C-alpha cells in the first residue's frame, strides 16, 4: 500500500499542486466550499426529517437540499482526492483522516440505503425511519467535520 501511496503523491499533478502555493490554496478553498454545500444541505435536511419545521412539506424541503448536498459531496470528493494525493502517505496514516473516511462511507451508505428503501424524497418512510436517518446523518456529518479539522492536529 505504501508503494501505491508513494507513487500517487509522486505523480506530476500531485507534485505540481503540492508545490504551488496558489494552486493548493485554490483547491483547499474549493474543498471547503464543497464541505459547506454538503453540510449546509445535509444538516437542515436531517433536521426536517427529525421533525423540525413540520409546517414545510417534506418533499419540497428535501429536493433542493438533496441537490445542494449532492453537489457539495461531488466537489468535496473531487477536491479531497486531489488534496489527498499531495501527501497520500502522511494522510493515510493519520487516525483522524481514517475516521473521517469511515464516517463519509457510513453517511453515503445510509443515504443510499434510505433511497433504496424509501425513495429519494422519503415519501413512503415512517416518522421513526425519518428521525433515525436524520439523527444518524447529523452525527456522521458533524463527525466528518470534527475529524477533518483534527487531521491538522494529529498529523506529523
Q: Can you give a write-up of this model?
A:
The structure is a single chain. This protein is mainly alpha-helical and about 160 residues long. It has one domain (about 1-155). It has helices at about 1-10, 10-20, 20-50, 60-85, 90-95, 95-120, 125-155. α2 (about 10-20) packs across α4 (about 60-85), α3 runs antiparallel to α4 and α6 packs antiparallel against α7. It starts with a helix and ends with a helix. The relative contact order is 0.15. The model has no long low-confidence stretch (mean pLDDT about 95).
Task: Give a quick precis of the structure.
The protein has helices at residues 2-10, 12-18, 21-50, 58-86, 88-93, 95-118, 127-154. The protein is mainly α and 156 residues long.
Secondary-structure topology with pairs:
Blueprint: H1 2-10, H2 12-18, H3 21-50, H4 58-86, H5 88-93, H6 95-118, H7 127-154
Helix pairs in contact: 2-4, 3-4, 3-7, 6-7
Features of the shown structure:
single chain, 156 residues, mainly alpha, 7 helices, 85% helix
Amino-to-carboxy terminus distance: 19 Å
Global geometry = elongated
* Helical stretch tally: 7
The number of strands is 0
Give the oligomer, counting copies of the same chain as homo and different chains as hetero: single chain
Low-confidence stretches: none
